[in-house]
Amino acid sequence: MTHKILILCATAAVLGSALPAVAEETLCFGKPADQWLIGTWFAGKSSWNFRKEGSAIKWDWVRLSGQVTDQWGLKKPAKGAGTVTEVSGCKIKMKGAYTEYDGSPGGTVVGTGITYDLEAVSPTVMKGTGYGLGKSTYSVRMSLYPK
Question: Number of C-alpha atoms within 13 angstroms, CB side, residue 146?
């Protein structure tokens, strides 16, 4: 009888350790993405608003007029939207498209894809790359607006 109890306890211990838990690699600074990522992030005259919708994390992007970059000079106002398609610890991948360009919801730009590959380097700063209308990779550094 003692042996059966020991085997049962040992089996339960082994099975118990195999139960799913929040894996360390899915956390960023001790929090899951639906906690550390949610909010508004800024870079110059651009902002990204991340929100949870069901099990997905969605984002909206707005670039105001007056944004100037070394790579493209003065940028036109634009908007976009999409989904966080992948999360691994502090790294995220985003995919979306332009929804408005130069104040117009029409034209050839609307629907053009936008992707981002970012990593949180602190609880309030993400860095990485983006790829969009210019068909060229560009650097991105954004900061979380204080909650």
Answer: 0
